[in-house]
């Protein structure tokens, strides 16, 4: 074991480092001094610095202990040798027996054979590796955490030397492969639908840390504490602004965020680094680099999103330390702006002027990341594409195609024209949809169709008024559970449901009880891994096995209704006995609240989803017990055809517009009519104009869909003559077709139905 490396040694080293940086000399001279200093202070036999050159080559730029003739001659590719390994993984290594490491590559010209132990750290700037800093010892020894941390701190200083282009020319450091002005296309992942054109605004939250070593640690600590206080109050302001703007769900996300801001582990690590002698900015950045490095190998999406939240906070804290309040400087933003960011937190997105924001391009992120949830609610197209920052210059013309997951950079005239037309068409359609909002939702031959919304976020609620929908046909209660970091208690649930009922006003809301499991995972609920989660322990099955969970939710719903009407729907019911079980729990809660003198809902409607085919054979027993039935066609199709809805190889193999599915749907229409039970459909089918047309032909009169589908579906139905369609479809139910899509399209075309 090596001697312990304490805070005093680290402070001494950092103080000398400050002197080197302040002294005159070329970049190379300063680097040589830094390398000698590290070797001396850390009592290392070797200290070397490798710098990234064009073509992803790491060149030995300076060394103390290896052959000096190897400087500027020894080069390693990223991934080659331990140095290349550190660069490749952007993570420190500490090895007591380096030659036994699988990546070890021996370079005879360096004369490094006698050195057994090695610690290496990446030289990081932003998200890019600019080089590698290494110390080596002859003897076999471990490295203390403090030693690795000190190397990381010094690596930050070296990163600045490189960035100030004192070591290699900026053209070499730039990784932009293409000549800057040529058009380019990036293909990525579609994360939020829609088309956007505009000028690139590079979201650079990172402020350069100019001074690494503090003159006075106490004063730095005070500065840090003051910045923390202003950051907290700024987050509070943001929370308030978001609430006022009706973006209530972002509230939840930001609350999680504030929790991080108060995270003691994070704060104490920063304070420790200040105590060791760093400036507040350098300490914040060091903890950020360290967290990034420690978490970079974790692939769990939830943890990665939390790391993202922490980065977002770090950037805010840096801005507050620098005396700036926001990274979004409105004065310099173009009117049509496309944000380009490595990654971004939801609060950072909300910092930008929404009236100018057209699209978002992220290098990292998943559709379920908080920033995407917020972007979708704001109707901003999002594409994720790696390499975006390397290819795009500020104010480059960009087209973000959130429907197909592609981005055009500096597009040629013809592409710009084509997309301008598509964007204009999109706007015209949106305008047209806005115009028909107040027109009745009736077919050409006078059949009224009730259009309802599928919601899951408070942020969706403003759409209820804007779209002209009649109510919320499906409120997915699991979504607010999914964006929280802990299980909401009865009070938190009551508050949430009450806000939804309040905001919906006199429009009805159908609350579906918790539908987790399958692809909907709650981060804080650990369950056993299932071989077949879609067929596993999910939705009402969990609620029936853990009645207290379901009872708490039902209690919260009853309390939230507070004497107003309430509709409750159970998901994934597979047999009447399950419905009875769930209903019994609701009755128990009703009784309990009555005993406490709580007012019962003025009208309680209870229904179920039909997603599991077995229920089709219990309709006569089930329907008399229900007030309404809603078809979950997403799951019903998956179970009917035994085709995983989340697997692209099977999900498109069978068509919902096929004879078997239409027969099932028609049967439901007939049975519900016989038992006088309201029927609706709330799967994705309802929101696709052609499918919605077929559903109306089958006999559905209530369709529940996501907000952007309301305009297209309403346009379709207002041009439809139901009687003609019903007659046409009579001949389709029992054929041998794989799909009826083409036939239905032809019908629409021949009859002027606007699909
Ligand atoms: C469905 O299965 O069609 C449905 C609406 O439920 P979810 O998509 O939430 O599973
Ligand atoms: Mg479902």
TrEMBL record:
It comes from the Bacteria. Its EC number is 2.7.3.9. GO terms for cellular component: cytoplasm. It catalyses: L-histidyl-[protein] + phosphoenolpyruvate = N(pros)-phospho-L-histidyl-[protein] + pyruvate. It holds the Pfam family PEP-utilisers_N. Residues 26-172 form the GAF domain. It is an enzyme of class 2 (transferase). It is found in: Cytoplasm. Keywords: Cytoplasm, Kinase, Magnesium, Metal-binding, Phosphotransferase system, Pyruvate, Sugar transport, Transferase, Transport. Belongs to the PEP-utilizing enzyme family. This is phosphoenolpyruvate--protein phosphotransferase. It comes from Azospirillum griseum.
